[in-house]
Fold this sequence. Notes:
Strand content: 5-15%
Low-confidence stretches: none
Helix content: 25-40%
Number of helices: 14
Bound molecules: pyridoxal-5'-phosphate
CATH superfamily of the largest domain: Type I PLP-dependent aspartate aminotransferase-like (Major domain)
CATH architecture of the largest domain: 3-Layer(aba) Sandwich
Amino acid sequence: MDMLMFELNKDSDKPLYEQxxxxxxxxxxxxxxxxxxxLPSKRKLADFLSISQTTIEIAYAQxxxxxxxxxxxxxxxxxxxxxxxxxxxxxxxxxxxxxKEQKQYKYHFSPGKVDEDSFPFSVWRxxxxxxxxxxxxxxxxxxxPQGEYELRAEIANYLFQSRGILCxxxxxxxxxxxxxxxxxxxxxxxxxxxxxxxxxxxxxxxxIHLDSNAIPISVDEEGLVVDELETTNANIxxxxxxxxxxxxxxxxxxxxxxxxxxASKQPNRYIIEDDYDSxxxxxxxxxxxxxxxDQNNKxxxxxxxxxxxxxxxxxxxxxxxxxxxIKYKEIFSYYSASVPRFVQHILANFMRxxxxxxxxxxxxxxxxxxxxxxxxxxxxYYPEVHITGDQAGMHILISVPTDKSVEELNQIAIxxxxxxxPVTDYLLKPIEFEYPSFLLGxxxxxxxxxxxxxxxxxxxxxxxxxx
Length: 467
Ligand SMILES: Cc1ncc(COP(=O)(O)O)c(C=O)c1O
C-alpha cells in the first residue's frame, strides 16, 4: 500500500499519537484502507512521518485494542474487518482548556480574599506531618459520610462557645464548601420546595437552585423584610441574619422573632441560616446565631472555614434539626464525605489544641486594623462617598453619588488596576439603587496598600476629599 499520509500538527494540543490514531481509524472506517491491508512497519512509518517509533507504537496499540487492526507476530499489522457502522463526523466539543485567566490587580479589594501573611503555616504543618505517618494508616480507609466524628465534636464545641448554638456532633454534616451542602439541603425537601432568597444575596444560590420560581425578598437596614416573605407561598427561606451578604445588615430582634414565628406556622417551613462572614465584628458584641433562639427545630444552620481559616481549605458544615437528619440519612448515607479525612483530622487537632480560637483572635486584630483604616480613609471623602455595612465582616459597602454608571465606575477601577465588586453582581431581581454601590473588601489587601489604593480609586473616579 501507499505510505500513510497524515497531516500531523506538532503544535497542536492533541498528542501526535492521538492524531495518528484518529487518522488511521478514519481511513479504515471510510474504507480508504481496505480490509486485510498490511500497515507499514513502525520503523518505516516513523521515518516517513519524521516522528518517533514510540508514537507509532502507541497509536497502533490503541487501534489493536479497539479491534481496528490485528497483529500477526513477526509479520506485521493488518486492517481488520469491522462491522458496517455509519461514520458520523462529529465536531470536537469546544471545551476551551486554557488556564483560568485571572487578572492580577495591584489593589485587590475583593470581598472573598483573606490575609495571606498571617496563616500559621508552621503549626498547620506540624499537624499535617503528624498525620502523614504510619500510625495514621487507618485514615487510608473511607470515613464516615457525615464527616469525621472528631471534627464534628470540635465544631459543636466551637458553635456552643462562640455562636450560642447547642447541638450534637451527630447533627453536623461536613462538606467541601457551602455550594456542596446547599444542594443537599434542598434535596431534603424534594418537591415540597419553594425557595425564598435575599435580594441582594449570595449569588451562587440561584445558580445552584435553577428553579426560576425562587422568590427574591427585599433587604433593608434591619435585614430581610419578613413582612414581604409572609406575602409569598415560599416554605424555605435562605438568610444570612448575623451579617447580611452583601449589605452587612443585621437581622433585628423583632424580625428574628417574626421569622421564627413564620416558620413555626407550617410543618414544611424551614429557615436556612448561613452564618458566613460573622466571625469578625468590629462594633458591639457578637450577634448570636438565629439557631440559638429556635425552639421548634426550624433552623438549618450552616457555616464555613472559608473566612476564618482559608477559602482553599474547602470545609463547610451544616447542623440539621433531628427531624431532617432522618431524611438526610435516608438519602445521603451512600455518599462519602467530600472533604479528605486527613484534612478533617488536621483541622480537628488544630481546633482541639486551641489554635483555631488563637488564630481567630489574632485575625480579629488584623482585620480590625484594616477595617479601621478603610473606614477612616473613606470617611474623609464623605459626602462624596457613603459607607454602610461597616460593623462586621471583611468588606464595606460604598455608594457614590455621581452621574457615572456602575459599569463605567467599575471599568475605570479595572483600568487603574483596582478590583472592587459592584453590588449589582448579587441581584436576583433588579433593584433601583439610589447611587452606584460597590463592595470594598479589605481581607486580602496588605494594610500598607489600603491608603494608596483608596486614594487612587477616588482620584480616578474624580472624587475629591471634603475640606
Ligand atoms: C453568603 C455566602 N455564603 C457562603 C459563601 C461561600 O462559602 P464556601 O467557601 O464555604 O463555599 C459565600 C461566598 O461568597 C457567601 O457569600
